[in-house]
Amino acid sequence: MRQPPPEPPRELLSGTVERVTYHHEESGFCVLRVQARGHRDLVTVVGHAAVVSPGEHVQASGAWVTDRTHGRQFRATYLTSAAPDTPAGIERYLASGMMRGVGPHFARQLVQAFGIDVFDVIERTPARLRDIPGIGPQRAARIVEGWHAQRNVREIMLFLHAHGVGTSRAVRIHKTYGSDAIALIRDDPYRLARDIRGIGFVSADRIARSLGVEPSAMTRVRAGCAHVLLQALDEGHVGLPREDLIGRAGLLLGVETPLVEEAIALEVRDGRLVADGVDGQPCLFLAGLHAAERAIAGRLAALQAGALPWAPIDVARAVPWVEERLGLELAAQQREALRLAATSKVLVITGGPGVGKTTLVNAIMRVLGARGVRPALCAPTGRAAKRLSEATGLEARTIHRLLEIDPHS
């Protein structure tokens, strides 16, 4: 068995940002040129940062890699930045446009007037900014506002890094919660699993434990119940029997059954879980999935209520006719499915590989084609559409092409 290539060793890198080659505002992905300690030439650092500007001091944890196109670069898993502490760095930082109201001219004026204390002046005695010619009340207010926004972002990133959150996830958290990120996460770290794509219960639980949340805390048990239902979704289930959910959640969380039952009751009360019965068995569903299931069932029922788009079919004659055309004998269940297809406007056929679904679809197409029906065949993927076309001899397209969906709009 071929072994994967070994992971490159982790290293620490720090230095001053000379140029921001690229920065994606939404994802935080950035490419920086950094004057790093211990390196004579500028190095390329690739990572994620909520905000970054020339002149800032950055610290990164990651590994050196060689990109086929761009050459040697430092790929950072963690990337933090701090305000510069040298006159040249401060001037470059202020002139970068990161703070509204300051361009190259005022950056030079501010550094000449206050030196390396300029950030203390903005923070503690902002009225002194108006000593600079051309800086009035409005511009001074914009400078203070911009500095506070930058400081807030750094505080959030440092808080998240301290609790084991990687930079790319930290950027997504900041983009989602803004300046309230720290307060919201302290209040309920498990909201991360609900609100942010790519952060699941396990990651949120690790952050929660880092914040001191007890294993038996009700917020944890409630989040764990939702996580178990999401795991069941990966297995093909939109819900679970109540007793099954209680057992799985208790095992995952390491808590007693009464605590799980209390959590379920609270989740149902708040509308996050829905209690419903399936064949007389009490079950629980995530509210969104339950609503989706009911909506789909309603749509299918509405479609089924419509009139058939073809004339009545004599199934007793159609079965031997199609068996002769296909050169095979249909199984009893396939004959019953063919009868249902001929007399129903909607039919859902399920089953694992090798049970005869493709043969059945082919038989249905032959029978309906003999009645003058013009079918539109589609499948979720291009490969599946190709297999469907090969099996039936008819054109099959992907669902989005059949519906003429434009992914851009």
Please characterize this protein's 3D structure.
By secondary structure, the chain is an alpha+beta fold. The strands form 3 sheets. The protein has a 5-stranded mixed β-barrel. The protein has a 3-stranded antiparallel beta sheet with strand order 6-8-7. Helix 9 crosses helix 10, helix 9 packs across helix 11 and helix 14 crosses helix 15. The mean pLDDT is 87.
Throw out a few tags for this protein.
single chain; 409 residues; alpha+beta; 5-stranded mixed barrel; 3-stranded antiparallel sheet; 17 helices; 10 strands
**Judging from the principal axes of the Cα atoms, what is the shape?**
elongated
Please give the alpha-carbon distance between the first and last residues: 45 Å
Helix content: 40-55%
Report the order of strands and helices.
EEEEEHHHHHHHHHEHHEEHHHHEHEH
Beta strand %: 15-25%
Mean pLDDT: 87
The largest sheet has its strands arranged as 1-2-3-5-4
Low-confidence stretches: none
Radius of gyration: 31 Å
Largest sheet, in brief, is: 5 strands, mixed, barrel
SSE layout and pairing:
Layout: E1 11-23, E2 29-36, E3 43-48, E4 57-67, E5 71-82, H1 87-95, H2 104-114, H3 118-124, H4 137-162, H5 167-177, H6 181-187, H7 191-195, H8 201-210, H9 218-234, E6 239-241, H10 242-253, H11 257-269, E7 273-278, E8 281-286, H12 287-304, H13 315-326, H14 332-343, H15 357-370, E9 377-379, H16 382-392, E10 396-398, H17 399-402
Parallel strand pairs: 3-5, 9-10
Antiparallel strand pairs: 1-2, 1-4, 2-3, 4-5, 6-8, 7-8
